[in-house]
Design goal:
The structure holds two protein chains of two kinds. By secondary structure, chain A is α+β, with helices and mostly antiparallel strands. Chain A is built from seven helices and ten strands. In chain A, helix 1 crosses helix 2. By secondary structure, chain B is mostly helical. Chain B starts with 6 loop residues before the first helix and ends in a 6-residue tail after the last helix. Classes of the chains: A alpha+beta, B mainly alpha. The interface between A and B is medium-sized, with 25 and 29 residues.
Chain lengths: 243, 207
């Protein structure tokens, strides 16, 4: 058989590609559920991180999540609750924040809220946020007190920001800065601004210092908070009036 | 085969005398990228060993059937397939590390060491020597990765595998982690230092 002929070459590469493709499809199928479980557990870990709850060695993150999460909601930009559940709701949990936050028309967005109880029984409202840093996506979870204004905790993570500079947003030192900041002042809603150290934002918003050397990432975090928290203004104001 | 290859040399040469990173200067890109911490360095090292060994064996098994004019494409398909499998396995069983390594696992495909070994060795040798060659070169690569990762994490973050090793007393006495160590240029300088030390012990390697 002539191994250099065109027919042989084409048949050969077709078979190779088919075999490899089948193997990959099989691998992907058989590992899918495990990977999804990992991704879900990682998301739960991040959500709990925003209310300062971390799993100890040997504890299953899903159990701790079930203990703390008291409900999930989807709200709209008018502050109305469109969907509600006690405990974990698979559909709300799976809402793709990255895709939602890119929808320029905020009134069309699905706005998930995770209701979480902390150790002293207080309810905290956790809001997922998503945006862009310097090299890739950044995201996080902001936990707000039942008064709809005070930040109880914040968690940020990123895909590939510069280690030591932009990547510092995932360090507790940066996240702690948010604790205690107010979203509502004089009944005016303003997302927390991220500014260069020593500067102040133009609005009357509460602010935190950005990361030196991580200017674009810090700005990305600021823009993300502006873009993702603003649609919740009506919902959070509703909470503060209930207080 | 005209000359008999010595299996021992095939396996041990890449450790030092013919190390893919510090002698052949291949795969530098990933050495710079993943070595800021020790743990990803180790996982990356093992991933490359696995991919290199298996792709060498597979290519060696089918080497007599591959049409010459598309041999690079066939090699790429095999390597790409294996890399995707490794990535999927990491996502399923070592999720945290897979997140840290992110894109660099996929970039094993572009690691010159792989294509180099496939083209230079596996295409001309039987499966068993090819396997040893793959594992040997993989270990040679992993060794450098681990040495660089060790120093970068120790000096850059004061930790090893995430555990703090520089005592707090040092920090109180004014010791500061070297932030430069975390950035890729320092990895290049470290690799340079390793090559320097290595050459001064192996005078026979032409520079």
């Amino acid at each position: 058989m002539n191994k250099q002929s065109n027919v042989y070459t084409i048949v050969y590469i077709t078979i190779v590609v088919l075999v490899v493709g089948t193997l990959l499809a099989f691998t992907s199928m058989s590992l899918r559920s495990r990977q999804q479980a990992n991704a879900d557990a990682d998301k739960m870990r991040q959500i709990l991180n925003s209310v300062h709850v971390t799993a100890q060695k040997g504890e299953k993150i899903a159990d701790i999540f079930d203990q703390h999460i008291k409900g999930m909601m989807l709200v709209n930009a008018n502050g109305e609750v469109v969907r509600q559940s006690d405990g974990l709701d698979a559909e709300i949990f799976a809402t793709d924040i990255a895709a939602e936050s890119k929808n320029a028309d905020a009134s069309q967005r699905k706005l998930p809220v995770y209701v979480c109880s902390v150790d002293n029984g207080d309810l905290k409202y956790i809001i997922p946020v998503s945006g862009a840093g310097l090299w890739g996506p950044v995201w996080g979870y902001i936990a707000v007190d039942a008064n709809g204004s005070t930040i109880y905790g914040a968690y940020f993570s990123h895909q590939g920001e510069t280690p030591g500079l932009g990547a510092e947003i995932e360090k507790p030192a940066f996240q702690q800065e948010f604790v205690g900041k107010q979203l509502i002042k004089d009944s005016e809603f303003n997302p927390i601004a991220v500014v260069k150290a020593g500067q102040k934002p133009n609005s009357n918003a509460d602010y935190v210092d950005g990361i030196s050397g991580g200017t674009i990432t810090s700005k990305g975090v600021g823009d993300m908070l502006q873009n993702c928290l603003q649609p919740y203004a009506a919902f959070l104001k509703g909470l503060s009036e209930k207080e | 085969m005209a000359e008999k290859i010595k299996l021992k040399e095939v396996f041990f040469n890449p450790f030092s005398k013919n190390n893919p990173v510090i002698v052949q200067i291949l795969g530098i890109c990933s050495v710079l990228a993943v070595t800021a911490k020790l743990e990803p360095s180790i996982v990356m090292g093992f991933s490359v060993i696995a991919v290199l060994a298996f792709s060498n064996v597979i290519i060696s098994l089918i080497r007599n059937t591959i049409p010459t004019n598309i041999r690079i494409i066939v090699q790429l398909v095999v390597v790409a397939g294996l890399v995707v499998v490794v990535n999927q396995l990491l996502l399923a069983f070592a999720y945290d590390v897979a997140m840290q390594l992110s894109v660099f696992i996929s970039l094993i495909i572009t690691n010159c060491i792989l294509m180099g070994r496939l083209e230079a060795f596996a295409m001309a040798n039987r499966p068993w020597p090819s396997f040893l060659d793959g594992v040997g070169n993989g270990i040679g690569y992993a060794l450098i990765l681990i040495i660089v990762g060790f120093f970068r994490e120790l000096l850059g973050s004061g930790t090893l595998l995430g555990y703090q090793v520089v005592p707090d007393a040092f920090y109180e006495a004014g010791y500061v982690n070297n932030g430069l160590m975390i950035l890729p240029p320092m990895a290049l300088i470290l690799v340079g230092c390793i090559i320097w030390v290595h050459r001064s012990f192996n005078k026979d390697i032409e520079g």
